[in-house]
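Ticket #4471: structure export looks truncated?
Reporter: QA, pipeline team
Priority: medium

Steps to reproduce: submit the single chain below to the structure queue and open the exported record.
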Amino acid sequence: MKKSVKNPILASMAFAALALPLAAFAADDALQQKVDALTKEVETLKQQPGKFDWLTIGGDYRFRVDSLHATIADYYQFTGDPLAPAAMKEEDVKNDTLYTNRLGLNIKAKVTQDVNLTTRLLMYKSFGNSDASATSGTFFADRVGQFDGTQGHTPGDDKLLVDQAFITWSNIADEPIWFSVGRRPSTGGVPSHLRQNADKPGNGGIPSLMVDYAFDGMSLGYAPDIEALPGAYGKICYGRGFESGYEKDSDAGALNDMDMLGISLVPYETDPLYLNVQWNRGYDIIDAPVIADSAFGPMSPSVNLGSIDWFGVTTLSTLKNVGPGSLNFFVSGAASVTHPNDNLSGGMAGLMYNAGEEAESKYGWGAYAGARYDITSTRTKIGAEYNHGSKNWVAMDHASDDMWTGKLGARGDVYEVYLIQELDRKAIASYNARAFFRLGYQYYNFDYTGSSNWVGAPQKISELDDPMKQQLFAPVKNAQDLYATFEVRF
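Actual output as written to the record:
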């Protein structure tokens, strides 16, 4: 027989004691369901891009002042009549103060999985001038005016120009293969980024001794995972340097397009050692670019002169904890070999030879070495560079960041020293945002005429007192540039 609980208070307490664990268990279950739901939502959000996670915006601004001085040698000026050259006496040329603005905007969009769009816009102009006349002259072929290969890299007007715009498709077929096409990152390559205080270019870059030229083109690359070769990759590159347009069947001797093909191998890339081996060929080299308003007036190509091969090797090393900082140093060497046809520009000059000379291949070479020491505690960077080009050296460095002419295309010696001082301020705009001053000095000592030019035979500058060696460009025998900048990167 069951016994009943007579006391109602005791009965309630007993019921409550039994019910409390059940209620607690129910509350825990509901809470766990909410936690699970929230966790699921968070995981879902993690897999979805934020409103602007797909877009990265950055850029830079540079104020620069240059003080430029040079000496032109005695020579005979070509006047259009080979029988009547004009005798020119040695004279100095200068611009004591040239101020310039350069603004760059970088935009990168993650379009879809494995597909990115990269763009860089550039505005580069002189103070008080909205065309290229202030920095153009009749001294060097790459500085007679602004053209497709140099736009945005030499001072012009105040318009933002498209310096880079290319699509990259990565992980093709789930392999470390990429394909990229558009306006290429073919300027400011390794190791010239050191003196610019810029980040080292990625696998889209190209050694600066051989090419510093704005190209439209494409590349196909492969980066195998080889334990003994960290960072190794290779790529095939193609670019178009001149588009000749329509051609009718009746057009005899019409211009061909000028194209560039290259193979770049980086068998090893770490901080202590970067190694690049490169071959390029320029096909159907033209005698002049299209320039609407050059120092000689409107210019356009008239003939294809042949082809040029380039072979080069570049090494770069960064050693950390060397004294109070890090040491960066590099060595780069390249050779150029011309393959001329019988065409003459203006009936006077072919690919590295003059009318009346045999159209034969010319071999030239260039060398480039330097170092930069970074003092960590003070954010000071001190650098020095030297390069030499032989008599027949040809470089495609027309877009280099040098006022007189692309120094790596010089036929002679060029010395440069510089000091970079970064401001000790916390980065805000991005993790590597920085502001810095740069002070530098360049000295050119030219041995032969025709630096940064492949039309005509080079002549020794000290032997131009012969009317038969008349020149179209005023032969600069030495030049100096004392420059200072104030720059920001974000």
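Status: closed, not a bug. The export was complete when the record was re-opened. Leaving a note from the reviewer for reference: Residues 72 and 476 are 4 Å apart (CA to CA).
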